[in-house]
Amino acid sequence: MLQKLKEIKSTYKTSVNILLIEDNILEAKLLQELLSESQTHSFNWFHVQRLSKALELLNSCHKNSSPYDIIFLDLSLPDSTELDSLQALTNQVNYLPIVVLTNTEDDQLAIKAINQGAQDYLVKRTVTYESLRRSLYYAIERKQIQEDLQKVNHQLKLSNQLLKEEIEQRKTIQKQLEVSNHELQHFAYMVSHDLKQPLFTISSWAQLLEIEFQNQLDIKAIKYIQHIVNGTQRMDQFIEDILNYSRVQNSKQELESTDCNQLIFLVKQFLAIAIETNNATITCDSLPIVMANSILLEKLFQNLIDNAIRYRKKTHNPKIHISANLEKDQNNHPFWQFSIRDNGIGIPQKCFDKIFMIFQRMHSSEEYPGNGIGLATCQKIVQLHRGKIWLESEVGKGSTFYFTIPETNHKSSLNQS
């Protein structure tokens, strides 16, 4: 989860300007204190106590030169009540993400706020440093997704006017994009707010319990607390993997010339601790430059190599070899066939058909950690690149995973069909 937050934060400037509309001075101070703990970003707060004052400030701003990155809005203000405040803001500055703050845990109110344009909904008494920071970055991210979709739709409309013969096809693509984006936004909101926040709350209070009462707790009690923390962390990682799987399905990044040798170098750096801990040896032939989505292709290599290290034999250090050969299909079309060979525990042949299905696991989590999403994600990535993935394996002798990528991808982006 922390790695994912770093990836999100790296896409934004290190200084974030927040307009806080909150009439309670103490609550405003608490919010500012929570985010003051950040060591990687600075948060500049602009605090007003009235909606009218906020509207006055925003009225003087131009969309492309607004000094604010995000708005935090208290729904209980002296000069406005509940969703009227939100409506007034969205009417004036729909280009800024808005996070609603309230003292009431009201699911119906939360749904109405999201439907009226709020990017998130936080209950003040449950807000922590982590939940506040996470809500901030996810709100900005979702707002950017919405704006990107609007730009895509605008370009599609222009293209439809110029290319009348493709009108029906363009309408279908636009509808698919809108549906996929709506589902992704709903899923991202549910994951980041409805599921993840309670997990962080449980984990945080359990750790505070251990810290505050460590002199009064026996070994058994401390062990129970550790089980709680470990359980919430595993669940958090499971939710994050589901979200990543969904994002792969809805990926919109362009294909680009990608050096696979460089990707293997980056994967080795990312997996450095696992490689060193398990005394793993990774060798690699000279790999090609292919037309691919570099981010997704790196994730593909990372998952396959991580699995090769994880499912090692207890009596042998992991040995992994990566290679690629240029082949041709039955229509004489060239493609690159990659292979990742290991000396691990192997996979029974009866499991070959279902190993790439989501949530399919061959072992218990006590034997080998995981959640059965990694190989399903690998298959999605390969399919998006118009390739195939399969394996050869023998129990006790290791496995070889193969996947293909066309030498020349004629598609300009992954979400074209």
List keywords for this structure.
417 residues, alpha/beta, Rossmann fold, Heat Shock Protein 90, 2 domains, five-stranded parallel sheet, 12 helices, 19% strand
Structural class: alpha/beta
Number of strands: 14
**Oligomeric state of shown chains:** single chain
Major sheet summary line: 5 strands, parallel
- Based on CA atoms alone, the radius of gyration comes out at 25 Å
CATH topology of the largest domain: Rossmann fold
Distance between the termini: 32 Å
Global mean pLDDT: 81
Low-confidence stretches: 1-12
Tally of helical segments: 12
Within CATH, the superfamily of the largest domain carries the name Response regulator
Q: Supply the number of structural domains.
A: 2
| Gross CATH architecture of the largest domain | 3-Layer(aba) Sandwich
Helix content: 40-55%
Tell me, briefly, the overall form: globular
The arrangement of helices and strands along the chain is HEHEHEEEHEHEHHHEHHEEHEEHEE
Question: Can you give a write-up of this model?
Answer:
- The chain has helices spanning 2-10, 25-35, 51-59, 83-92, 107-115, 129-162, 167-212, 219-249, 260-270, 272-277, 294-310, 374-384, and strands spanning 15-21, 42-48, 70-74, 76-77, 80-81, 98-102, 120-123, 256-259, 281-284, 289-292, 319-328, 334-342, 389-394, 398-406.
- By secondary structure, the protein is α/β, with parallel strands linked by helices.
- It folds into two domains: 2-249, Rossmann fold; 256-406, Histidine kinase-like ATPase, C-terminal domain (Heat Shock Protein 90).
- Strands 2-1-3-6-7 form a five-stranded parallel beta sheet, sandwiched between helices. Strands 9-11-12-14-13 form a five-stranded mixed beta sheet.
